[in-house]
Amino acid sequence: MKIQFPHNIMVYLKRIILSFLGLISFFVPIQAQLNTERVMNIGRNALYFEDYILSIQYFNQVIKVKPYMAEPYFYRAAAKLSLEDFRGAEEDCNLCLERNPFITGAYQVRGIARQNLGDYQGAIDDYNEGLKYAPEDRTFLGNKAIAEVQLKKYDDAEKSFDKLIKTHPSYYNGYLSRSQFWLEKKDTLKAIEDIDKAISLDKHLSYAYAQRAIIKFQYTKDYQDALADMNEALRLDPNMSSYYINRALIKYHLDDLRGTMADYDRVVEIDPNNLMAHYNRGLLRAQVGEKNKAIEDFSFVLKYEPDNYFAYYNRAVLYDELGNYRAAVKDYNKVLDQYPDFYSGYYARSEAKRKSGDISGGKSDYQKAMKLYEQQKNTNKSYEEVADNIDESENDTSEKDADKVRKESDKNINKFDRLLVADNTDMKSKYTNEIRGRVQDKNFNVEIAPAFVLTYYEKPDQVKQTISFVPEVENLNRAGILPYRVLLTNAEMALDSAKINKHFVSVNDYSKLIEINPNNAVPYFGRALDFMLIQDFASSLDDLNRVIQLSDNFVLAYFMRAVVRFKQIEYRASTQDFDTQNSKSVTEAFSLPKNSASSILLPNSSSNKKESVGMDYEMVLRDYDKVIEMSPQFVYAYYNRANVRCAQRDFRAALADYNEAIRLRPDFSDAYFNRGLVYVFLGETQKGIADLSKAGELGIVSAYNVIKRLGD
Prior knowledge:
By secondary structure, this protein is mostly helical. Helices cover 68% and strands 2% of the residues.
């Protein structure tokens, strides 16, 4: 079963990737050193900023020229792992370790890849090798324990978990992982004890409450307690659709149909294409008499799953009840083609045919139904009885509860009227893998909203619908001097292969124009934007410097140069803290404390580090100062400058800039969010909560999580 990678594993991968930055030059001959280092550095930029496809292209270039180097294979493996190309990641780690067996991170990446590929023993071997170099690494220890569970080496897994927790007694994910191990051994008491311990270490772990809720629901049948835990999980993480699905199931067992329906409505609102929610809501709508709406839900499911015969049958029943007999017969036909021994289906179709005037067809179906019924009656084994026996043997589920639900893998058509549940709802978890702690990163670390950049692309946001506008960008687009419409956004989008190739071609085209007329600023600006998009910051800065030399009143060139310089600072700062468990980028100015509602903690920073980047920050600030001098209404310059001030820990100055940004644009959600965090850090909690509330109102959903944590 595929292992999923939450945010903390990506942070870990960044850390192990960055740990090898200093190794590159030792293996490069002098005659080609500059070019190789440059391409490697651009590739690492792309990898750090999660532009994985682009990073692979750069590492491919290095490998083509220097196939004997180990590091580009390692970096490419990490990119492939992030893209869930597990076989490719494993192969690249093999090539890396053949060239240098001492790159510890390669054992981690290969182990995770092998775990996803089902090679659990191979993963264990990799984790053991990595533990030789890092004997207390909690990721090695935790992943090894999980792989041992997957191999059903329970004694070994128990020892590994014990070592993990003994070495890291405050690592709540260790307890959460072990709780699922106890479920594998059917020891629910120990499982709940470990979840209780995790919650005692951090009461804001929504996943822990959700996991405990399912255990109570599945094993102890304590539905009220299960509901209370799931409510708490949703209080902490109100946009997790899977929690609503599980809570709906709990409410359904409590006979709260209205509450169940409301939860499915919420799932569809959050995740409009959630087929399980549509299917179950269709069943509930049918139960309460909302037949046309139920048909809409089943039709939606069939649009994406044209072989879902349960949806066909339920829709056929509804068409039949509404008098649309031809449509009902058409759906019954599809079901009976797939289930030719389904006597209830023949009986239902016989009635629909008879009502539509097909008396002969109805009679034939009725006779077929009676014949099948007698045959199954004589065998004393209906489909349903057989399936229920299997369910009970596998899941320790009571007969009453089994009558309420059907698992996705259960294709017994007699269960057409049961709520659909995921195969892994029983929370044995199968270690799908939390490796391990998506939630603590989501709930713990509070990053300020990022800076705005000039680009051609942005990620879609269904909640935040505001449009970023400044006259300078609009004038640039109207002039049509660039090939695509330029956007101002702080939701940058990684490029796919087609876009990457397009911008490489564009760089060459601009270079030709520059050869023809080296004193025209426009091609330099267009090429600088291309270079930034393909993560070549040094080349982008060279071109922007040239633009400003040629046209010192080009406002957007100053703005863009500040953006690119800040990206460089962020990347360089990250390389200095790769071996620190709590390292953060410069945009991660704040981290909410575990037990305090009145302050925000800052990451550690050494004075030497501040001095080393101080001049870089000043150069960024000078560019934003110039933008504001030339265009005092340029709201995003104030906002971005405030973010730089936050990175410098100059929060009073940051407040002044956020204030001005909000004055210029009263619906500026990101400015409210960041100003709220600054207020909280400065001890003005109520002002901070007010700003965070406004940010949430304007579409930044994560603001509500912060407010809840501050209120606990």
